[in-house]
Amino acid sequence: MGLPASPAEAAKIAGRFLRGPLSEELVNGETFFSNSAVGVLKFHGIYQQDDRDKRKTGPKQHSVMVRVGIPGGRLTADQYLAMDRVADEIADHTLRVTTRQDIQYHHVPKQDLTQLIRALNDNLLSTFAACGDVVRNVVCCPAPFVSPQRTELQPYVLHLSRGLMPKTRAYFEVWMDGERAASLEEREDEREADPFAVEPLYGNTYLPRKFKIGFAYPGDNTTDVYTNDIGIVPFYENDELKGFTVLAGGGMGQSAGVKASHPRLADPICSVGPDRDELLEVASAIVSIHRDFGNRTNRKLARLKYVLDEWGVEKFKAELEARVGRSLADPAPLSWRRAEDYMGWHQQSSDEHGEPIWFVGVRVLSGRIKDGDEARVKTGLRTIVERFHPEVRLTPQQNLYLAGIRNGDKEHIARLLREHGIAEAQSLPPVLRHAMACPALPTCGLAITESERILPEIVNEIQTEFFEAGLSEQEVHLRTAGCPNGCSRPYTAEIGIVGASVLMYTIYLGASPFGTRLGKAFATNVKSHEIRSRLRPVIKHYADTKEPGERFGDFCHRVGLEGLQGLSQMKIAELASA
Q1: Could you tell me which residues come within 8 angstroms of residue 421 by beta carbon, excluding any fewer than 6 positions away?
Q2: Cα 451 to chain center, whole Å?
Q3: Which distant-in-sequence residues (6+ apart) come within 8 Å of 398 by Cβ?
Q4: Are 74 and 158 contacting, i.e. CB atoms less than 8 angstroms apart?
Q5: List of E strands, 323-431
Q6: Are 156 and 276 in contact, with CB atoms under 8 Å apart?
Q7: Cα(first)–Cα(last) distance of the chain, in Å?
Q8: Nearest C-alpha neighbor of 202 from the set 228, 171, 166
Q9: Taking Cα atoms as reference points, which of 275, 274, 272, 276 lies closest to residue 324?
Q10: What interhelical angle do 276-293 and 313-324 show, nearest 10?
């Protein structure tokens, strides 16, 4: 007899294909959702939260976070402007770009939720399946370069997104009174079917946990493709797309106190041809493996990566081939040359007259699009999008690109960026250029400690150490997370700082700057004000002994964990004897 399923599994069955008690609770006059509604609500892209800063001063002040799924991170100018308006009219006047190319709204009152979702729906945007135990937003490298070896991947992204979307009509019944959104097609064979029997892929309990898919271009790992449950990389012969290398089993999350949980990078599994339907078929089969073999008794060990851990690549590929009914080719080799977002100005293509068309990468600190004292990022972006109507592309590194800019408009847009205090990335300190943080406190219910709010201070301290070591122009990837779940992907950062308890962190070092190697725990239970001093001897040793062109993460990997810890212990001993 097997172990009993987790309570979350029973809740999914009781939710009647993601309906639950949502319709009733939206009109019950309460300012919060019940526990039975909260689990179902996640599948609709919504998390109930409260302001944790105010818990000690009175009753919980509930609101919801709303996540908008944006396949490939691509928005029309009109869609972006609609999202900007919603932020002011309903949310907290900010938009937050996530590491999944989503947009999140924070501090949304329950009573305004239906209005928000309908406003998004009117602009062909949806929150459905942006969270929950399903395939979430499919990400893709958003840089819009046009070249023979950069096939437009958005059609593949949309094909997988639509094909793997849950089929239940619950979203439309709850939020649009059954109206069918114009952006989603109704399947003819479902119109007369049992309204509950609508999940041929997922079944009535959906997946054991969330599932993530990411595309990357060859050599260009800006999406951290190895951190996905499925990673997809095209390959070419003589500038012709020949197919895709498929990886499986990546994931960042780990749980405090659960030793068996850990971050993991995906393994290359197979290659498939360039046909969209074949790619969808193989992706669906991998999702079904997770559905059937993922851990449904312990959610902390329920990701696909643990199936790969247990089975290995050979057994996993054999099961995949059995499900698609044929042998699959070996994966094509992969190599990487960069992983940073394209900040600043880049030529995208040329128009019919040979004039350049541009895109500009805009740095968005922690993905938070807002107006502050020094930079009016939200107003500046709105002004530019209103006047020039560029396409807006969100990045998995929490930045955005304004694309399709005519040559004659380039200087006008550059001036508007400057006037609103939106700095060119190259003018920022190197550590800040690519730093990332999760939201953490005060809204995230899983956060153990600070992340987004403490990032500027940590970046400034570590930047000072690099400066004092004579490395003022050294770029390094730094990411902070408020808990071990690792939403900001700290385990693939050259310096990963992960919350362990209140203002206490674990420091990870040695990850590859290309996202192909995980960092290792260098120091645990480090107080926030001690992070700088613990890294000081490592940074100094890097400055003194690095090889030509050697990146910080590669140096830490070469020296090894014991060597790095020895440097730190020597410094601690020096301070103790001083």
Answers
A1: 374, 375, 376, 377, 380
A2: 16
A3: 97, 98, 99, 364, 366, 367, 436
A4: no
A5: 336-338, 344-350, 356-362, 368-369, 391-394, 400-406
A6: yes
A7: 63
A8: 166
A9: 272
A10: 120
* CA torsion angle 568 570 575 578 (round to 10): -170
301: phi then psi, degrees, rounded to nearest 5: -125, 35
The two counts, helices (H) then strands (E), for the chain are: 17, 22
Task: Give me the residues paired with residue 243 across strands.
Answer: 235
Whole-number Å distance between alpha carbons of 104 and 10: 28
Return the closest-CA partner of residue 446 out of 247, 192, 255, 212: 255
| pLDDT score for 512 | 98
Q: What residue ranges of the chain have pLDDT lower than 70?
A: 1-3, 178-197, 568, 570-578
Q: How far apart are CA 465 and CA 534, in angstroms?
A: 11
Q: What is the C-alpha R_g of the chain?
A: 24
What pLDDT does 574 receive? 59
Which long-range CB contacts under 8 A does 507-510 form with residues at least 24 apart?
507/531, 507/534, 507/535, 509/538, 509/553, 509/556, 509/561, 509/564, 510/553, 510/556, 510/557, 510/561, 510/564
Amino acid found at 573: A
Does the model's pTM come out above 0.85? yes
DSSP H or E segment with residue 246: strand 240-248
Q: What would the two tokens of residue 140 be?
A: 């893709």
What are the tokens at 158? 């949309």
> What are the tens digits of pLDDT across the range 443-461?
898 999 999 999 999 999 9
Burial class (CB in 10 A: 0-12, 13-18, 19+), 21: middle
Packing angle, helices 313-324 and 304-311, rounded to 10: 110
Per-residue model confidence (pLDDT) at position 5: 78
Q: What angle do CA 566, 570, 574 make, to 5 degrees?
A: 170
Active site residues: 67, 136, 210, 212, 438, 444, 483, 487
303 near 249, Cβ under 8 Å?
no
117/48 Cα distance (integer angstroms) = 15
CA distance 308 to 223: 21
**Torsion angle of the four alpha carbons 467, 472, 475, 477, in this order, in degrees rounded to the nearest 10:** 10
Furthest CA-CA distance within the chain: 80
